Amino acid sequence: MSTTNNKDMPELPASDRAWALFLDLDGTLVDLVDHPDSIVVDDALRARLETLTALLDGAVAVISGRAIDDLEKHLHLPTLAMSGQHGAEWRNSQGDRQIAGDHQKALEAVRQQVKEQVERDDALYLEDKGASIALHYRHRPEAGDMLKHNLSSMIGEYSDLLELHQGKFVFEIKGQGYDKGVALERFLAIPPFADRCPVFIGDDRTDEDGFRVVNAHQGVAIKVGTGDSLANERLTDPGAVHAWLDQWIMQLQRP
Ligand SMILES: [Mg+2]
């Protein structure tokens, strides 16, 4: 059985099985920052992802709430598989992309109302991802309850098409029926992910859908940070995630 050097870290995935690795980005691979554009993806992280992708025969994907265009802007890894907007957007390692569309009309109606809400308050920031929208309130934390109430009533009449999610100082409105678990299942149905056991690392509530799928596949679910989680394993912060991934790289490189 494999062990890491650090007792506080989860055990490394067993070397006698084939694994697929799924990674959240914000709060998992990079530190959370005040503005979503301010994240830092350095060359070491990029190299780590490329090395893992090679060692796992391409079975590595980033599963994020961000749009794929936004992920690519920061990662610059055109052959890395990705799912964006909590599963509504999807790209395989050949660069083929798909985006969900059923909810777009309803979202357009709500988008305008959310924009008006944001225009009334400089401390709010609207991230328009195309197939979903995110309202960031890190600079107005006391407004959480009020925003939740307002956004819930905005999507009320479209509740069969849209859903509201709360993350760390962010509310997201996205299409029904897509989440990070759906994204994982979709990858696990196709090569090079099919017939592999999933590892998923994430830090936020929306990652719990992914952990549920990983547990159903007897994979490894790792929650970053504190708080209740379906994940059985923990890492403290993105630095610890990097260290754990580096340990795994060394294990995978061993002949
Ligand atoms: Mg996250």
TrEMBL record:
Names of the cofactor(s): Mg(2+)
GO biological process: trehalose biosynthetic process
Catalytic activity: alpha,alpha-trehalose 6-phosphate + H2O = alpha,alpha-trehalose + phosphate
Gene3D superfamilies: HAD superfamily/HAD-like, Trehalose-6-phosphate phosphatase related protein, domain 2
Swiss-Prot/TrEMBL keywords: Hydrolase, Magnesium, Metal-binding
Family: Belongs to the trehalose phosphatase family.
Name of the protein in its database record: Trehalose 6-phosphate phosphatase
Organism field: Kushneria phyllosphaerae
Organism ancestry: Bacteria, Pseudomonadati, Pseudomonadota, Gammaproteobacteria, Oceanospirillales
Gene (name only): otsB
